[in-house]
Design a protein that fits this description.
The protein is mostly helical. It contains 13 helices and four strands. The N and C termini lie far apart (58 Å).
Length: 360
Protein backbone atom coordinates (compact mmCIF):
# COMPACT_ATOMS: atom_id res chain seq x y z
CA UNK A 1 0.00 0.00 0.00
CA UNK A 2 2.88 2.35 0.82
CA UNK A 3 4.50 1.80 -2.60
CA UNK A 4 1.14 2.45 -4.25
CA UNK A 5 0.82 5.85 -2.54
CA UNK A 6 4.45 6.76 -3.31
CA UNK A 7 4.01 5.73 -6.95
CA UNK A 8 0.83 7.78 -7.30
CA UNK A 9 2.52 10.90 -5.89
CA UNK A 10 5.47 10.37 -8.25
CA UNK A 11 3.13 10.09 -11.24
CA UNK A 12 1.26 13.29 -10.44
CA UNK A 13 4.46 15.29 -9.84
CA UNK A 14 6.13 13.82 -12.93
CA UNK A 15 3.17 14.62 -15.17
CA UNK A 16 3.11 18.23 -13.98
CA UNK A 17 6.83 18.70 -14.69
CA UNK A 18 6.64 16.96 -18.06
CA UNK A 19 3.70 18.98 -19.39
CA UNK A 20 5.18 22.26 -18.17
CA UNK A 21 8.59 21.60 -19.68
CA UNK A 22 7.31 20.18 -22.95
CA UNK A 23 4.82 22.95 -23.67
CA UNK A 24 7.42 25.68 -23.09
CA UNK A 25 10.18 23.84 -24.93
CA UNK A 26 7.90 23.63 -27.95
CA UNK A 27 7.97 27.39 -28.39
CA UNK A 28 11.70 27.63 -27.72
CA UNK A 29 12.52 25.10 -30.45
CA UNK A 30 9.98 26.32 -32.99
CA UNK A 31 7.96 23.11 -32.75
CA UNK A 32 4.22 23.16 -32.16
CA UNK A 33 2.82 21.79 -28.87
CA UNK A 34 0.93 19.16 -30.89
CA UNK A 35 4.15 17.72 -32.35
CA UNK A 36 5.83 17.80 -28.94
CA UNK A 37 2.86 15.84 -27.61
CA UNK A 38 3.17 13.39 -30.50
CA UNK A 39 6.91 12.88 -30.02
CA UNK A 40 8.73 13.98 -26.85
CA UNK A 41 5.82 13.55 -24.45
CA UNK A 42 4.34 10.51 -26.16
CA UNK A 43 7.65 8.66 -26.45
CA UNK A 44 8.64 9.62 -22.94
CA UNK A 45 5.45 8.46 -21.29
CA UNK A 46 5.69 5.21 -23.27
CA UNK A 47 9.08 4.42 -21.76
CA UNK A 48 7.49 2.12 -19.12
CA UNK A 49 5.91 0.08 -21.94
CA UNK A 50 9.31 -0.06 -23.64
CA UNK A 51 11.16 -1.26 -20.56
CA UNK A 52 8.53 -3.83 -19.58
CA UNK A 53 8.07 -5.27 -23.09
CA UNK A 54 11.80 -5.41 -23.88
CA UNK A 55 12.57 -7.09 -20.58
CA UNK A 56 9.69 -9.54 -21.08
CA UNK A 57 10.76 -10.34 -24.64
CA UNK A 58 14.37 -10.86 -23.58
CA UNK A 59 13.32 -13.25 -20.81
CA UNK A 60 10.92 -15.17 -23.07
CA UNK A 61 7.65 -13.85 -21.62
CA UNK A 62 6.33 -12.81 -25.02
CA UNK A 63 2.68 -12.87 -23.97
CA UNK A 64 3.39 -10.05 -21.53
CA UNK A 65 5.40 -8.14 -24.14
CA UNK A 66 2.62 -8.29 -26.76
CA UNK A 67 -0.26 -8.00 -24.32
CA UNK A 68 1.32 -4.90 -22.80
CA UNK A 69 1.41 -3.07 -26.16
CA UNK A 70 -2.02 -4.13 -27.42
CA UNK A 71 -3.66 -3.56 -24.05
CA UNK A 72 -1.96 -0.18 -23.63
CA UNK A 73 -3.18 1.03 -27.02
CA UNK A 74 -6.75 0.05 -26.18
CA UNK A 75 -6.41 1.61 -22.73
CA UNK A 76 -4.93 4.85 -24.09
CA UNK A 77 -7.86 5.62 -26.38
CA UNK A 78 -10.82 4.27 -24.45
CA UNK A 79 -9.78 5.00 -20.87
CA UNK A 80 -7.44 8.00 -21.10
CA UNK A 81 -9.23 9.98 -23.80
CA UNK A 82 -12.56 8.96 -22.31
CA UNK A 83 -11.64 10.13 -18.82
CA UNK A 84 -9.93 13.30 -20.08
CA UNK A 85 -12.99 14.24 -22.16
CA UNK A 86 -15.25 13.61 -19.17
CA UNK A 87 -13.21 16.16 -17.21
CA UNK A 88 -13.18 18.74 -20.01
CA UNK A 89 -14.18 18.47 -23.70
CA UNK A 90 -11.04 18.09 -25.83
CA UNK A 91 -10.43 20.13 -28.95
CA UNK A 92 -8.97 17.99 -31.73
CA UNK A 93 -6.32 19.54 -33.99
CA UNK A 94 -7.04 19.30 -37.71
CA UNK A 95 -3.63 17.68 -38.24
CA UNK A 96 -4.69 14.75 -36.07
CA UNK A 97 -7.73 14.06 -38.23
CA UNK A 98 -5.87 14.49 -41.51
CA UNK A 99 -2.60 12.68 -40.75
CA UNK A 100 -1.87 11.31 -37.27
CA UNK A 101 -5.01 9.23 -36.69
CA UNK A 102 -4.71 7.64 -40.17
CA UNK A 103 -1.08 6.83 -39.27
CA UNK A 104 -2.26 5.22 -36.02
CA UNK A 105 -4.86 3.20 -37.94
CA UNK A 106 -2.28 2.19 -40.54
CA UNK A 107 0.30 0.91 -38.05
CA UNK A 108 -2.46 -0.93 -36.14
CA UNK A 109 -3.48 -2.71 -39.33
CA UNK A 110 0.19 -3.43 -40.08
CA UNK A 111 0.65 -5.09 -36.69
CA UNK A 112 -2.46 -7.20 -37.24
CA UNK A 113 -1.09 -8.29 -40.63
CA UNK A 114 2.36 -9.10 -39.22
CA UNK A 115 0.80 -11.17 -36.43
CA UNK A 116 -1.38 -13.19 -38.82
CA UNK A 117 1.33 -15.83 -39.32
CA UNK A 118 1.64 -16.40 -35.57
CA UNK A 119 4.94 -14.58 -34.98
CA UNK A 120 6.62 -11.16 -35.16
CA UNK A 121 10.21 -11.86 -36.16
CA UNK A 122 13.41 -9.83 -35.97
CA UNK A 123 13.03 -8.57 -39.55
CA UNK A 124 9.50 -7.37 -38.68
CA UNK A 125 10.97 -5.53 -35.71
CA UNK A 126 13.58 -3.81 -37.87
CA UNK A 127 10.84 -2.66 -40.27
CA UNK A 128 8.74 -1.29 -37.41
CA UNK A 129 11.68 0.58 -35.84
CA UNK A 130 12.65 2.01 -39.22
CA UNK A 131 9.13 3.30 -39.79
CA UNK A 132 9.21 5.02 -36.40
CA UNK A 133 12.42 6.84 -37.31
CA UNK A 134 10.98 8.05 -40.61
CA UNK A 135 7.70 9.12 -38.98
CA UNK A 136 9.47 11.17 -36.31
CA UNK A 137 11.73 12.94 -38.83
CA UNK A 138 8.74 13.86 -41.02
CA UNK A 139 6.81 15.23 -38.02
CA UNK A 140 9.62 17.46 -36.79
CA UNK A 141 10.54 18.78 -40.24
CA UNK A 142 6.93 19.58 -41.09
CA UNK A 143 6.39 21.37 -37.78
CA UNK A 144 9.54 23.48 -38.06
CA UNK A 145 8.64 24.38 -41.65
CA UNK A 146 5.14 25.50 -40.62
CA UNK A 147 6.52 27.52 -37.71
CA UNK A 148 9.14 29.17 -39.91
CA UNK A 149 6.38 30.25 -42.29
CA UNK A 150 4.59 31.90 -39.35
CA UNK A 151 1.46 29.78 -39.55
CA UNK A 152 -0.11 27.15 -37.42
CA UNK A 153 -1.38 23.88 -38.90
CA UNK A 154 -4.90 25.31 -39.28
CA UNK A 155 -3.62 28.27 -41.32
CA UNK A 156 -3.78 31.01 -38.66
CA UNK A 157 -0.81 33.26 -37.90
CA UNK A 158 1.13 32.03 -34.91
CA UNK A 159 1.67 34.41 -31.98
CA UNK A 160 4.61 32.41 -30.69
CA UNK A 161 8.00 34.07 -30.29
CA UNK A 162 10.56 33.62 -33.06
CA UNK A 163 12.10 30.21 -33.51
CA UNK A 164 14.93 29.62 -31.07
CA UNK A 165 13.79 32.37 -28.65
CA UNK A 166 13.85 30.65 -25.29
CA UNK A 167 12.99 33.72 -23.29
CA UNK A 168 9.56 33.97 -24.82
CA UNK A 169 8.94 30.31 -24.10
CA UNK A 170 8.97 30.75 -20.35
CA UNK A 171 12.67 30.48 -19.49
CA UNK A 172 15.96 29.05 -20.67
CA UNK A 173 15.60 25.89 -22.75
CA UNK A 174 17.95 23.96 -20.46
CA UNK A 175 15.54 24.50 -17.56
CA UNK A 176 12.67 23.09 -19.61
CA UNK A 177 14.77 20.07 -20.57
CA UNK A 178 15.45 19.59 -16.87
CA UNK A 179 11.71 19.68 -16.15
CA UNK A 180 11.10 17.05 -18.86
CA UNK A 181 13.90 14.78 -17.61
CA UNK A 182 12.77 15.02 -13.98
CA UNK A 183 9.16 14.43 -15.00
CA UNK A 184 10.01 11.36 -17.06
CA UNK A 185 12.12 9.93 -14.23
CA UNK A 186 9.28 10.34 -11.74
CA UNK A 187 6.76 8.88 -14.21
CA UNK A 188 8.85 5.79 -14.88
CA UNK A 189 9.60 5.18 -11.20
CA UNK A 190 6.01 5.69 -10.13
CA UNK A 191 4.56 3.41 -12.80
CA UNK A 192 7.13 0.67 -12.10
CA UNK A 193 6.26 0.64 -8.41
CA UNK A 194 2.56 0.37 -9.18
CA UNK A 195 3.02 -2.34 -11.82
CA UNK A 196 5.13 -4.51 -9.53
CA UNK A 197 2.41 -4.45 -6.89
CA UNK A 198 -0.33 -5.17 -9.45
CA UNK A 199 1.51 -8.10 -11.04
CA UNK A 200 2.09 -9.65 -7.63
CA UNK A 201 -1.62 -9.52 -6.84
CA UNK A 202 -2.63 -10.87 -10.27
CA UNK A 203 -0.27 -13.84 -10.17
CA UNK A 204 -1.45 -14.67 -6.68
CA UNK A 205 -4.94 -15.00 -8.19
CA UNK A 206 -3.69 -17.37 -10.92
CA UNK A 207 -4.42 -15.17 -13.96
CA UNK A 208 -2.55 -15.92 -17.22
CA UNK A 209 0.38 -13.79 -18.38
CA UNK A 210 -1.54 -12.66 -21.48
CA UNK A 211 -4.45 -11.36 -19.41
CA UNK A 212 -1.98 -9.70 -17.01
CA UNK A 213 -0.32 -7.98 -19.98
CA UNK A 214 -3.62 -6.87 -21.51
CA UNK A 215 -5.04 -5.47 -18.28
CA UNK A 216 -2.92 -4.76 -15.20
CA UNK A 217 0.45 -4.25 -16.90
CA UNK A 218 -1.12 -2.34 -19.80
CA UNK A 219 -2.97 -0.05 -17.41
CA UNK A 220 0.01 0.25 -15.09
CA UNK A 221 2.52 1.19 -17.78
CA UNK A 222 -0.04 3.62 -19.23
CA UNK A 223 -0.37 5.48 -15.94
CA UNK A 224 2.14 8.11 -17.15
CA UNK A 225 -0.14 8.77 -20.14
CA UNK A 226 -3.12 8.97 -17.76
CA UNK A 227 -1.44 11.50 -15.50
CA UNK A 228 0.06 13.49 -18.38
CA UNK A 229 -3.10 13.72 -20.52
CA UNK A 230 -5.36 14.60 -17.60
CA UNK A 231 -2.90 17.19 -16.29
CA UNK A 232 -2.49 18.66 -19.78
CA UNK A 233 -6.27 18.85 -20.21
CA UNK A 234 -6.67 20.62 -16.86
CA UNK A 235 -3.87 23.07 -17.76
CA UNK A 236 -5.48 23.84 -21.13
CA UNK A 237 -2.74 22.10 -23.15
CA UNK A 238 -5.29 20.06 -25.09
CA UNK A 239 -3.00 19.47 -28.07
CA UNK A 240 -0.61 17.67 -25.73
CA UNK A 241 -3.48 15.77 -24.06
CA UNK A 242 -4.75 14.26 -27.32
CA UNK A 243 -1.42 14.15 -29.16
CA UNK A 244 0.12 12.23 -26.26
CA UNK A 245 -2.38 9.39 -26.71
CA UNK A 246 -2.10 9.16 -30.50
CA UNK A 247 1.69 9.46 -30.42
CA UNK A 248 1.98 6.86 -27.67
CA UNK A 249 -0.05 4.36 -29.66
CA UNK A 250 2.16 4.83 -32.72
CA UNK A 251 5.31 4.55 -30.59
CA UNK A 252 4.02 1.44 -28.80
CA UNK A 253 3.60 -0.45 -32.07
CA UNK A 254 6.59 0.84 -34.02
CA UNK A 255 9.05 1.46 -31.19
CA UNK A 256 8.16 -0.83 -28.29
CA UNK A 257 7.24 -3.88 -30.37
CA UNK A 258 9.97 -3.13 -32.91
CA UNK A 259 12.74 -3.11 -30.31
CA UNK A 260 11.18 -6.05 -28.43
CA UNK A 261 11.15 -8.17 -31.60
CA UNK A 262 14.76 -7.21 -32.36
CA UNK A 263 16.12 -8.16 -28.92
CA UNK A 264 14.00 -11.28 -28.47
CA UNK A 265 16.12 -14.42 -28.96
CA UNK A 266 13.45 -16.20 -31.01
CA UNK A 267 11.08 -13.41 -32.05
CA UNK A 268 7.66 -12.83 -30.55
CA UNK A 269 5.22 -15.73 -30.80
CA UNK A 270 1.63 -14.51 -31.06
CA UNK A 271 -1.01 -16.20 -28.91
CA UNK A 272 -3.89 -17.72 -30.96
CA UNK A 273 -6.45 -15.38 -29.37
CA UNK A 274 -4.55 -12.25 -30.38
CA UNK A 275 -5.31 -12.13 -34.15
CA UNK A 276 -8.95 -13.15 -33.66
CA UNK A 277 -9.92 -10.91 -30.73
CA UNK A 278 -7.45 -8.49 -29.12
CA UNK A 279 -5.84 -7.12 -32.30
CA UNK A 280 -9.24 -6.60 -34.03
CA UNK A 281 -10.39 -4.71 -30.91
CA UNK A 282 -7.27 -2.53 -31.07
CA UNK A 283 -7.88 -1.77 -34.77
CA UNK A 284 -11.57 -1.05 -34.13
CA UNK A 285 -10.66 1.36 -31.34
CA UNK A 286 -8.24 3.18 -33.66
CA UNK A 287 -10.89 3.36 -36.40
CA UNK A 288 -13.44 4.71 -33.91
CA UNK A 289 -11.27 7.81 -33.42
CA UNK A 290 -11.91 9.10 -36.94
CA UNK A 291 -15.68 9.73 -36.65
CA UNK A 292 -15.34 10.87 -33.03
CA UNK A 293 -12.58 13.34 -33.89
CA UNK A 294 -14.35 14.41 -37.09
CA UNK A 295 -17.63 15.49 -35.44
CA UNK A 296 -16.86 19.13 -34.80
CA UNK A 297 -13.19 18.34 -34.03
CA UNK A 298 -14.17 18.08 -30.36
CA UNK A 299 -14.26 15.01 -28.12
CA UNK A 300 -17.43 15.83 -26.20
CA UNK A 301 -18.21 14.57 -22.73
CA UNK A 302 -20.74 12.05 -24.02
CA UNK A 303 -18.15 10.66 -26.43
CA UNK A 304 -15.68 10.42 -23.56
CA UNK A 305 -18.29 8.56 -21.52
CA UNK A 306 -18.82 6.19 -24.45
CA UNK A 307 -15.11 5.42 -24.70
CA UNK A 308 -14.85 4.92 -20.96
CA UNK A 309 -17.85 2.55 -20.91
CA UNK A 310 -16.39 0.47 -23.73
CA UNK A 311 -13.14 0.06 -21.83
CA UNK A 312 -15.05 -1.21 -18.81
CA UNK A 313 -16.91 -3.64 -21.09
CA UNK A 314 -13.65 -4.85 -22.69
CA UNK A 315 -12.06 -5.42 -19.29
CA UNK A 316 -15.15 -7.24 -18.04
CA UNK A 317 -15.03 -9.51 -21.10
CA UNK A 318 -11.37 -10.36 -20.47
CA UNK A 319 -12.10 -11.21 -16.84
CA UNK A 320 -15.08 -13.38 -17.78
CA UNK A 321 -12.98 -15.12 -20.45
CA UNK A 322 -10.12 -15.74 -18.00
CA UNK A 323 -12.54 -17.22 -15.49
CA UNK A 324 -14.47 -19.13 -18.19
CA UNK A 325 -17.64 -17.70 -16.70
CA UNK A 326 -21.07 -18.92 -17.84
CA UNK A 327 -22.14 -15.35 -18.65
CA UNK A 328 -19.35 -14.86 -21.20
CA UNK A 329 -21.39 -15.74 -24.29
CA UNK A 330 -24.40 -13.65 -23.31
CA UNK A 331 -22.20 -10.66 -22.46
CA UNK A 332 -20.42 -10.89 -25.81
CA UNK A 333 -23.72 -11.05 -27.69
CA UNK A 334 -25.04 -7.94 -25.95
CA UNK A 335 -21.92 -5.92 -26.76
CA UNK A 336 -21.48 -7.17 -30.34
CA UNK A 337 -25.17 -7.33 -31.26
CA UNK A 338 -26.50 -4.16 -29.66
CA UNK A 339 -24.00 -1.71 -28.17
CA UNK A 340 -21.49 -1.63 -31.03
CA UNK A 341 -24.03 -1.27 -33.90
CA UNK A 342 -25.87 1.48 -32.00
CA UNK A 343 -22.61 3.36 -31.48
CA UNK A 344 -21.55 3.06 -35.12
CA UNK A 345 -24.96 4.27 -36.34
CA UNK A 346 -24.85 7.27 -33.99
CA UNK A 347 -21.34 8.25 -35.05
CA UNK A 348 -22.21 7.79 -38.72
CA UNK A 349 -25.23 10.08 -38.44
CA UNK A 350 -23.19 12.71 -36.61
CA UNK A 351 -20.40 12.50 -39.19
CA UNK A 352 -22.84 12.96 -42.08
CA UNK A 353 -24.44 15.93 -40.30
CA UNK A 354 -21.03 17.52 -39.71
CA UNK A 355 -20.03 16.97 -43.33
CA UNK A 356 -23.24 18.61 -44.58
CA UNK A 357 -22.69 21.60 -42.31
CA UNK A 358 -19.15 21.97 -43.67
CA UNK A 359 -20.49 22.04 -47.26
CA UNK A 360 -22.77 25.00 -46.60
Amino acid sequence: MLWFVIGLVALIAGAELLVRGASRLALAMGISPLVVGLTVVAFGTSSPELSVSVQSAWSGQVDIALGNVVGSNIFNVLFILGLSALITPLLVHEQLVRREVPVMIGVSLLLWALAADGAIGRLDGIVLAGLLTGYTVVLIRASRRDTAQGATADGTIADAPPQGDPAGAGGHWALQVGFIAAGLALLVLGSNWLVEAAVGFARALGVSELVIGLTLIAAGTSLPEVATSITAALRGERDIAVGNVVGSNVFNILGVLGVSAIVSPAGLDVAPSMPVFDLPVMVAVALACLPVFFTGRVIARWEGALFFAYYLAYTAYLILMAREHDALQEFGLVVAGFALPLTFITLFVLSVRQWRMAQR
